[in-house]
Automatic annotation (TrEMBL):
Protein name according to UniProt: AAA family ATPase
SUPFAM superfamilies: P-loop containing nucleoside triphosphate hydrolases
Organism of derivation: Candidatus Gemmiger excrementavium
Residues covered by the DUF4143 domain: 227-389
InterPro entries for this protein: AAA_14 (IPR041682), DUF4143 (IPR025420), P-loop_NTPase (IPR027417)
Start and end residues of each AAA domain: 19-153
Length: 451
């Protein structure tokens, strides 16, 4: 079984008897159902699971359910023998977005308190935005991502003691010895190939066959593209086009979305596709990085520019699209291949999974810095530059950025293939795999207001 960090959060929430219902959001195929089922069956004698998408395609028992009494009646038709007491009965509502009215009903199920509940779904951001009555204070919403680098390392044989040692080295800014660094880079490059989608990771662990891994990744990529299309007929072509453009955008120098390329129409702007971008981001299949030109802590209050970068939610899908079954491009660090886009994708997914909101610096005169994050300890902005080549010390835009006194930058990081950890002024050079230790508070959205 693959270790997932979110299992501890789920277990702690259920053990704490929190009156709120935990709602696990995330893209399809990231392992939500599996991990909830695993934890739920361990903790509760009676585990009841209802997949609302399957119900919507079949008997539609819950299609018209809008009251607690009706919900219990329908549930009893399926699992009446397991409906015991709150302390020993967990009701898992999977793919709850299939019936948006059930999101509103969660509030009343929580108040009734007859059983313990947990729910999961995809496209919850889209569904919640279209729901007229959000269960304020009754749900705790957390987002689940594909396996991050640490989880991938654990799946590949590193134990938690080794990870703890690596973390202490990072905190003390101590470089690894040459052999350990090479091992970490080997595993990191394999992560670039495999990514963090559970089915792809399991295929890799079972077979070490890149063709099997790629088959899984291409199937999920196609599934994401089709899934993004079927939920909104009026915008499906534009949504699909934006999604399909992400890999090619990553290969461009600036990597950002160009609105006029989406439909090949001059005069189109970012605002013309705001809903389409929001759809892909809310679905969890794209990660958004917002541009700012005058950054100050906290970044969420900084006035942003109307520019956006989109990254795929999984680096394995990206490397499959770019390099196919040829693993040499990544494992052998071929000089003619620029791995900048896959490195940046890993950093984006790691930062997002660790609770960071993603921003980048864009200045017409000074250039770009790959990522900006908030540091809540120093109450300042931290710039991060990602380098995949040997010229990792060349970064004029970052130099201008840290030297701008208006920004009050206290520290900056450059992530690259280097083993040594060095400091030059405010800039610290780190090996790329240390991105797994850039931790923040878990991303949660706890409160919703009733319009």
């Amino acid at each position: 079984m693959l270790y997932r960090k979110i299992s501890r959060l789920i277990e702690d929430h259920l053990r704490a008897q929190d009156p709120r219902i935990l709602l696990v959001d995330g893209a399809r195929q990231v392992g939500k159902t599996y991990i909830i089922r695993y934890v739920g069956k361990q903790l509760f004698e009676n585990f009841i699971e209802v997949n609302m998408v399957e119900d919507s395609l079949g008997e539609r028992l819950f299609a018209q359910t809008r009251s607690v009494e009706d919900f219990y009646l329908q549930l009893s038709m399926l699992h009446g023998d397991k409906m015991k007491e709150k302390r020993n009965t967990l009701v898992f509502l999977d793919e709850i977005q299939a019936y948006p009215q059930l999101l509103t009903l969660l509030k009343f199920l929580a108040q009734d308190g007859r059983f313990t509940y947990i729910a999961s779904g995809s496209l919850l951001g889209v569904t919640l935005a279209q729901t007229t009555s959000i269960p304020m204070g009754s749900i705790r919403k957390v987002r689940m991502y594909p396996l991050d680098l640490e989880e991938f390392l654990l799946a590949n044989g590193l134990n938690k003691t080794a990870i703890s040692t690596l973390r202490r080295k990072f905190q003390a800014r101590q470089a690894l010895d040459e052999a350990t660094h090479n091992k970490m880079m080997d595993l990191f490059r394999k992560y670039l190939l495999v990514g963090g989608l559970p089915d792809a990771v399991n295929a890799f662990l079972e077979s070490r066959n890149i063709q099997r891994v790629r088959e899984v990744q291409r199937e999920i990529h196609d599934y994401y593209a089709a899934d993004a299309s079927k939920y909104d007929a009026g915008r499906k072509l534009k949504i699909r086009r934006i999604y399909d453009l992400i890999p090619s955008n990553m290969e461009n120098r600036k990597k950002r979305v160009v609105a006029q390329q989406i439909e090949n129409k001059r005069g189109k702007t970012f605002g013309d596709y705001q809903d389409e971008f929001e759809y892909l981001i809310s679905a969890g299949i794209a990660l958004n990085v917002q541009a700012v030109s005058n950054p100050h802590f906290p970044l969420a209050e900084t006035e942003g520019k109307n520019l956006l970068k989109l990254y795929l939610n999984d680096v394995g899908i990206l490397s499959a699209l770019l390099y196919g079954n040829n693993i040499r491009a990544i494992l052998e660090d071929v000089r003619s291949i620029n791995l900048g886009s896959v490195y940046e994708t890993v950093v984006a997914s790691e930062l997002a999974a660790h609770g960071h909101k993603l921003f980048y610096y864009d200045n017409r005169n000074r250039g770009e810095v790959d990522y900006l994050i908030d540091d809540y300890n120093s109450l300042s902005v931290v710039p991060i530059e990602v380098k995949s080549g040997k010229d990792y010390t060349v970064h004029s835009a970052l130099n201008h950025f840290v030297n701008n006194e208006e920004y009050h930058i206290q520290t900056a990081f450059v992530l690259s293939n280097t083993r040594e950890i060095t400091e030059k002024g405010k800039i610290t050079y780190l090996p790329i795999y240390d991105i797994m230790f850039f931790e923040n508070q878990p991303a949660e959205e706890n409160t919703y207001l009733i319009p």
